[in-house]
Inverse folding.
């Protein structure tokens, strides 16, 4: 059976690298755990690092965090649906919001539960996912500040999540200015400008982060050590906290081109024939993992001498050429993964999860 490993020491070293960087810049931060897909074993590893704030987009995952350590501040990081508000208020100490009606419902529920619920108001800064338009912010806050059982603790934004708009110093300065305007207008203190996600870290590394930005929400760089501007591993961090191992369940020499009349496969794909491959053969390995678990385009083979040919629902097909390393049935093949690949694997109940 295929299995995924989490390397505890490498995760710890990535965490310590980020903690030191944020402390140096006077920035508070929380860890985004949604990649872990509620895996209790891996969530416990996060908490054991000494993390005091965890963010997730699934309420059930936040409930598990509270079960493991009730003292951890939990943050729900997407707009909540109306029917999930009671559960969200129960398990999330903080939530990100951009709809006045939703915040009114949260206020009513927080009153019922006898809680003060903290809110970060999300601001649209160009990527066109969630967020209040800047010219509506003053009127928006005028109505939210009057709601009972609600505490506004920050303005936030998300970039690079939908249309790929990258963070910039100018965009983050604008967000900081919105905060100042609202504080002056209403004589209220808003503690956070929560403008940082993993994609914003390179601005900090290059001393381009505006001083007003004082809160980050970090997932991908913690787990993959990646600079998302240059798509490379940050010096001093690890890119292989997670590794995937899959077993070879068939190994045979076969023609390099299919034989027979072609039609679309179950994924709707049509094979393109390269006539130069007629009559040629290669060794093909089938692995015990497939599209139900991961999209092959997010896998990075450790052995660069073979290529991924494709996948069906439960099997991954490799071209090993002449098989120079003499792979056999029963051998395992190791992969690193991009973020979306690890997300698929972690969401699959068919792949074992192991802490090293």
């Amino acid at each position: 059976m295929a299995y995924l490993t989490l390397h505890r020491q490498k995760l710890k070293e990535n965490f310590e690298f980020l903690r030191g960087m944020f402390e140096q810049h006077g920035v508070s931060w929380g860890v985004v755990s949604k990649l872990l897909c509620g895996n209790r074993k891996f969530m416990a590893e996060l908490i054991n690092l000494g993390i005091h704030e965890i963010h997730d987009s699934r309420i059930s995952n936040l409930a598990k965090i509270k079960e493991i350590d009730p003292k951890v501040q939990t943050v729900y990081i997407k707009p909540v649906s109306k029917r999930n508000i009671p559960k969200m208020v129960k398990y999330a100490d903080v939530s990100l919001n951009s709809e006045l009606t939703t915040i009114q419902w949260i206020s009513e529920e927080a009153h019922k539960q006898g809680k003060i619920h903290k809110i970060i108001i999300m601001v649209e800064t160009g990527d066109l996912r969630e967020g209040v338009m800047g010219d509506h912010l003053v009127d928006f806050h005028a109505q939210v500040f009057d709601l009972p059982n609600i505490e506004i603790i920050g303005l936030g934004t998300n970039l690079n999540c939908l249309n790929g708009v990258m963070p910039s110093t100018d965009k983050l300065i604008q967000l900081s200015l919105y905060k100042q305007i609202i504080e002056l207008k209403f004589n209220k203190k808003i503690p956070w400008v929560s403008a940082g996600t993993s994609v914003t870290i390179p601005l900090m590394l290059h001393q381009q982060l505006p001083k007003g930005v004082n809160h980050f929400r970090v997932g991908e760089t913690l787990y993959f050590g990646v600079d998302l501007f240059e798509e490379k591993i940050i010096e001093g961090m690890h890119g292989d906290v997670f590794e995937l191992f899959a077993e070879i369940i068939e190994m045979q020499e076969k023609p390099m081109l299919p034989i027979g009349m072609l039609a679309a496969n179950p994924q709707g794909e049509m094979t393109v024939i390269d006539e130069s491959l007629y009559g040629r053969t290669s060794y093909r390995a089938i692995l015990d993992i497939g599209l139900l678990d991961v999209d092959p385009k997010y896998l990075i083979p450790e052995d660069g001498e073979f290529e991924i040919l494709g996948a069906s629902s439960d099997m991954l097909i490799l071209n090993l050429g002449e098989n120079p390393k003499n792979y056999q049935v029963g051998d395992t093949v190791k992969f690193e993964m991009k973020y979306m690949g690890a997300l698929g694997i972690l969401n699959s109940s068919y792949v074992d999860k192991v802490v090293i």
Summary: The longest strand covers residues 242-255. The chain has a mean pLDDT of 93. The two ends are 17 Å apart (CA to CA).
